Amino acid sequence: MIAGPGSGTSRRAWSRTRSRSPGRSGSTGSEPVASSRHSVRSRGRGGILCGMSGKAVRAAAVLALALSVAMVPGTAAAAPHCQSITEASNPDWMAGLPDDASLAQLSIPGTHQTLSLHGGELTQTQENHGDSAETLAVQLQSGIRAIDIRVRRYDDRFTLHHGPFYQNANFSDVLQKAGDFLAAHPGETVLLRLKAECTGETGSCTDENSQLDETQIFDWYRDNDPNGKYLLDPAGGAVPTLGEARGKIVLAVLQGARGGLHEGRGVGQLTNDTWGERVQDAYTVPTLFDIDDKWAKVRDHLDKTVSADPGDLFLNFTSGSSPAAFPNAVACGAAGFRGVNDYALEHLTTNDLPRTGVIMMDFPGADLVNTIIAANG
């Protein structure tokens, strides 16, 4: 424990004078050209399918509908462990912790695919509280301090995607909402996992009109975006202390579309060699009958975190899914099946863990967020 004294909106209206990019072969539409701030929006609320033929899109839609009706029980209701994030309010929980505490020592609640809201039940991973990163603002208010942002390279900027689905938000929106929050709560910090999303394969998205790689685009935002001043890249160095990180969005890791890390970016402890040891992200849950196996992996990684040196940074993803087990069902449970979030809440409330590390969750509930924060003492 860390000792301390305390413990949708709608999208912006488009100007009629803004131009749109020409349609692409194999796509269902075109994403608008970025404005002067490179704000990019999709035409439809659910995003667009990039790089897929019309036949493939229709087939995917039919399959998703069939699976949602026949294979997966209905969406779980709000509960202490799930889908109740607005009932938690922890805007300043880091402020009372000591400056010399390493971020690795802390128990930090986070969200997996932080802004994946559109595309259907197979792709939605969080409660929808608005586009343009309004959902992020709600998460930060609740106490979430680690975020997972997936991006498509578009006109040498970042748009947010989950697979082929545009999420009605851009990286500039993320920086604005996180920056506004940190300006109002300067004792806090936000840990960022930034990952390229587009492989160009069927079921994914395709980068468009971009000559810069992920590292170069990240640098552009840091140096040119009005809220780039909040970005802190340890550049392969030590895990920052809380005192060094207050008021900043700390890049933990920058990954390519196939998972490889851009080493020399983010914290030096997370590399291609250490990823399997420090990070548990077994994201495939073949069926609802495999939820217990996923929970066992989460629990084992918690045990590893507790037994390791307190200066070692660990990330633990409670998330998982497949076409036969949607993210909501895995996290929250379904008829006859207990969700990972429920297992996690029980484990954390019945065991006095000295730290949890960073826990990245789908659909976290208020009690789960509060319990992770409480582990900091």
Explain what this protein looks like in three dimensions.
This protein has 377 residues and is an alpha/beta fold. It has a single domain, classed as Alpha-Beta Barrel (TIM Barrel), CATH 3.20.20. The protein contains ten helices and twelve strands. Strands 1, 2, 3, 4, 5, 6, 7, 8, 9 and 12 form a ten-stranded mixed sheet that branches. Strands 10-11 form a two-stranded antiparallel ribbon. A hairpin with a 2-residue loop joins β3 and β4. α2 packs parallel to α3, α7 packs parallel to α9 and α9 runs parallel beside α10. The longest helix has 17 residues. It is globular and about 50 Å long. The N and C termini lie close together (5 Å). About 17% of the residues have low confidence. It comes from Saccharopolyspora hirsuta. This is 1-phosphatidylinositol phosphodiesterase. Its EC number is 4.6.1.13.
Largest sheet: 10 strands, mixed
What's the overall geometry?
Answer: globular
Helix-strand category: alpha/beta
Strand segment tally: 12
CA radius of gyration is 20 Å
Low-pLDDT stretches are 4-49, 57-74
CATH architecture descriptor text: Alpha-Beta Barrel
Structurally, the number of domains stands at 1
Order of helices and strands: HEHEEEHEHEHEHEHEHEEHEH
Approximate strand percentage: 5-15%
Superfamily (CATH H level) name: Phosphatidylinositol (PI) phosphodiesterase
| Mean pLDDT across all amino acids | 87
Spatial separation of the terminal alpha carbons: 5 Å
Could you say what the CATH topology is called?
Answer: TIM Barrel
